[in-house]
Write a structure and sequence with these properties.
By secondary structure, this protein is of the alpha/beta class. It has one domain: ABC-type transport auxiliary lipoprotein component (Rossmann fold). The chain is built from two helices and ten strands. Strands 1, 2, 3, 4, 5, 6, 7, 8, 9 and 10 form a ten-stranded mixed β-sheet that branches. Helix 1 packs across helix 2. The longest helix has 24 residues.
Length: 198
């Protein structure tokens, strides 16, 4: 019988799962992990570009997500890593870079950069979910963001953004592609929301 190959997360239940539906996880050794990246998107931009400068802070994530491994949720209380795939960098770093790139593509702001750059606003990001849910065959991405004024260091607004994308299989990079699609939806929402706040 075909078996999933999942690497259990430390301090979480060890999981060994049989094939469910069309979802398959082909196994590979740890030294043979395929690497996958995320992409910035080209969101719509307003007719009047904003004049402010924005920095995107280093995203906060819990221990399971703060790595270069692709997270799979096997049930409500259990997580695992795909055994044959990884991100090209730590996920928080990738999310930060792709979000900055998406803001830059939108041409809404005079400048978008990293902490330490001169700015009028700061966008704080917390990665709540970035996982493949095998029970629903969905990629789930949730980012909580808070926009602050750098002049007053006080919050302007905050919101939780979430999106899903179909993930009927995880083979051949499909898991990474599904998560990339869900992230693209979330980033588009974040850019539009930020434009309304500034």
């Amino acid at each position: 019988m075909l078996r999933w190959r999942l690497l259990p997360l430390s301090r979480l239940p060890v999981v060994t799962l049989a094939l469910l539906g069309a979802l398959s996880l082909p196994g590979c050794g740890a030294s043979q992990l395929a690497s996958y990246d995320l992409a910035s998107i080209q969101p719509a931009h307003t007719a009047r570009p904003l004049r402010g400068a924005l920095v995107v802070s280093d995203p906060i994530a819990d221990e399971a997500v703060d790595s270069d491994r692709i997270v799979v949720r096997t049930d409500a209380n259990s997580l695992a890593y795909l055994s044959d795939a990884r991100w090209t960098d730590r996920l928080p770093d990738l999310v930060q870079e792709r979000l900055i790139g998406t803001f830059q593509n939108a041409r809404l702001l005079k400048f978008v950069g990293h902490p330490g750059d001169p700015s009028d606003y700061s966008l704080e990001v917390t990665i709540r979910k970035f996982e493949i849910d095998v029970q629903t065959s969905l990629a789930r991405v949730e980012l909580a963001v808070r926009l602050l004024s750098r002049l007053t260091n006080k919050p302007i607004a905050a919101r939780l953004f979430a999106a899903t994308a179909p993930a009927p299989t995880t083979a051949n990079g499909a898991a990474a592609n599904a998560l990339d699609s869900a992230l693209g939806q979330v980033m588009r929402q974040i850019v539009a929301w930020t434009a309304q706040q500034i």
